[in-house]
Each structure stands twice: as structure tokens, then as C-alpha cells.
Design goal:
With 133 residues, the chain is an alpha+beta fold. It has helices at 2-13, 27-31, 71-93; strands at 21-25, 46-48, 56-65, 97-104, 107-109, 115-119, 123-132. It has one domain (19-132). The chain is built from 3 helices and 7 strands; from the N terminus they run αβαββαββββ. Strands 1, 2, 3, 4, 5, 6 and 7 form a 7-stranded mixed β-sheet that branches. The radius of gyration is 18 Å and the shape is globular. The protein starts with a helix and ends with a strand. The relative contact order is 0.26. It comes from Archangium gephyra.
Length: 133
């Protein structure tokens, strides 16, 4: 019986060790979304590309659970959360968000059509780096 319990516990733990998967979504798909509080992304405030010299750098990391939605949908929610944080700071500083890049492990997305997230077994994570100028 003890061996059976050990086997069942080991089998249940296997999905927790599943490899992370990179999810790619477009900036336009995030712009089309509305947060639960009704906020939307203003695309005119964002510029993608490499780090901009002289810009005040910032990083935002967000995650979304994968329950009841696809990995792509969870990725969009995580990115929306991060981008709204950048947008709020940019408006407060009266600047734009420049040199926007997203990261999923070692994979970087620096184009509007290739924002990336890392999807695990239960959580989708996004890391966004950019500057204000």
C-alpha cells in the first residue's frame, strides 16, 4: 500500500515539472483588451525596440493563472497588467514608453507582433523592460 501511495504521489507531481512553453502574442491583441477596471492601452505611448540610451529604465513582471483560459489568453492578461503599469508611469512622468522588450526566459520579443510570455503548467509569466523618455 505504501508503494502504491508513493507511485500515485509521484505521478501527480509530474505535470508540475512540465517544461515551460513560450507563447507569442501581438501588441494589437493587447490593445484590443480592456482591464477589469475598464482601462485600455494607448498605443501612441509605446515604442518597441532595443534599450534607448538616456531613458530611465524600468522592469515589470506579471503573471496570470491558467485556470479556465488558454495559455495565450493568460499571456495577454499578464502583458496587459505590465503594460498598464508602464502606461501609468509614463503618464505620470509626462513621457513615452520607449525601447519596449518582453522576455520569456532567454527569448526576447522587441517587436509589436512578437510579445512573449513563459507558460508553465499552471501560471503564465511575462517580464517587460522599457524606458521612459
Amino acid at each position: 500500500m505504501k508503494n502504491l501511495v508513493t507511485l500515485v504521489v509521484a505521478c501527480l507531481a509530474v505535470p508540475a515539472f512540465a517544461a515551460d512553453k513560450i507563447i507569442t502574442v501581438s501588441f494589437d491583441s493587447i490593445v484590443a483588451m480592456e482591464s477589469k477596471s475598464g482601462e485600455r492601452i494607448d498605443p501612441k505611448l509605446f515604442k518597441f525596440g532595443p534599450e534607448v540610451a538616456g531613458a530611465e529604465q524600468d522592469t515589470s513582471a506579471a503573471s496570470s493563472n491558467g485556470f479556465g483560459k488558454s495559455k495565450e489568453e493568460a499571456c495577454k492578461w499578464a502583458l496587459l497588467s505590465s503594460l498598464l503599469k508602464f502606461q501609468a508611469q509614463a503618464k505620470q512622468k509626462n513621457k513615452k514608453v520607449v525601447g519596449l522588450r518582453t522576455y520569456a526566459g532567454a527569448t526576447e520579443g522587441a517587436k509589436a507582433d512578437s510579445l512573449v510570455c513563459l507558460a508553465g503548467a499552471m501560471v503564465v509569466r511575462s517580464t517587460v523592460k522599457a524606458g521612459y523618455k
